[in-house]
Amino acid sequence: MDTWVYLLVAIVTLFWFYVKRSHGFWARQNVPGKPPTFLFGHLDILGRKHLAQGIKETYDSFKKTSDYAGFYFFTSPRIIPLSLDLIKHILVKDFNYFSDRKLYFNEKDDPLSAHLFSIRGEKWRTYRQQLSPTFTSGKIKMMYPLIVEHIGALKAFLRKNMKQGPMDFKDVCTRYAADVIGLTAFGMECNALKNEKSEILRMNHLLFTFDTFAKRLNLLFTASFEEISRKMHLRIVPKELEDWFMGMIKETLRLRESGKVDRNDFVKLLRQLKNKGTGASEDLTFNETAAQAFIFFFGGFETTATTMHYCCGYLAKKQDIQERVREEVRQVLKKYNGELTYEAAHELTYLKQCIDETLRMHPPGFSLFRMAINDYRVPNSSLVIKKGQEVIIPIYGIHMDPDIYPNPDVFDPDRFSAENVKKRHPMAHLPFGEGPRNCIGMRFALLELAVAISSIVDNFKLTMNPKTIFPFQFDTKDLAILPKGGIWIDIEELKAGQ
Question: What pTM value is reported for the model?
């Protein structure tokens, strides 16, 4: 019995020393940082504080005294660059040192996780080169009528539900974004605006809701211990969602290959890549095809919906800004004979500023993650970021920095006038990332947002309901930066001339 007690004490002691030594990594490198908590480092796995807030705290604490600071995911060390010049080096000038993301994916057990956002090396470069033609201005212009096509359904949905009281606007925006991405990318009618129990909405909830301790722990553990997670066959895409999505893609590809459907969309490009028949290493398998479709589908509509409902929330709260947007929309529409053409949507300058300000305050991706693929000496420093170490770009911290954006908690679209943008560092606004690995669908998303929000404001008056907690507070149980309690808006249809 005594032997087992001694063995247990020895194991606990060794484990304690391992954790303490791991948490001393940055101190031994003379890198500043906040004291980590035992085992969990700087993570709050109980969901009391959002990860974006934890990263921002480190940014705020050391930005004036250092170009970088240390951070820990459990016992795994990360580095947070604090200088905008250093961030430009990492994302742009020295991109070849940081071309990969250290995001967990598992092609064998979780094939949908191996998508463009997470894969690495030459495979990522090949996919990026092959998929980029989908998002040229010409291709987006071809898809534009499909974006506009669902505006009628969006207005009908608002008219139908506005008399029932305040509306949860995240629900409105998620439905619209799902319908648009389904049609423009896959030629699929999701009918989320028409069907209250659309399956796509349930699947989206399944993927993006982290309301249990187990789901949050799984996400953080796989991000921190990649190889162990693969050996444990852990997955981040729920199996139910994988089965549903794989079945949908199979049916979509079957219809395309039968010749019954032919559309210039994302699936057409993926099908061409899959069926090249060259036998070359860059040919896409079915699983690889499905994974790329997956990230475009779910990543595209969830982030768009989040930005759209925040922007509408601010317009509902700031009636003067809402009226200014409405006046701009109507002036542009008058110029184009009342039609929201592709060209008209690109002339909504002030609305674009409102979207940019929303993305500043609530970036869907609150941080960028990059991994050093070779040892990298930080310029003007003795610090070497070792091969395999992860870098966390603190987007939310930068966006809410009062030294860059005075009174950062105030919604002020004039921050993004052409004149004011020129005065700031190019790395001061990073909602879509920067450099060769920036968001491939950025222009598509901005156009979709401009079309939807301009149409809503032109036809309806938005007023924030007292049910909404304002200023918006973090819902710490969500992965994205979502508002606690939701954004509830009262809708009133405008009559002609109003």
Answer: 0.93
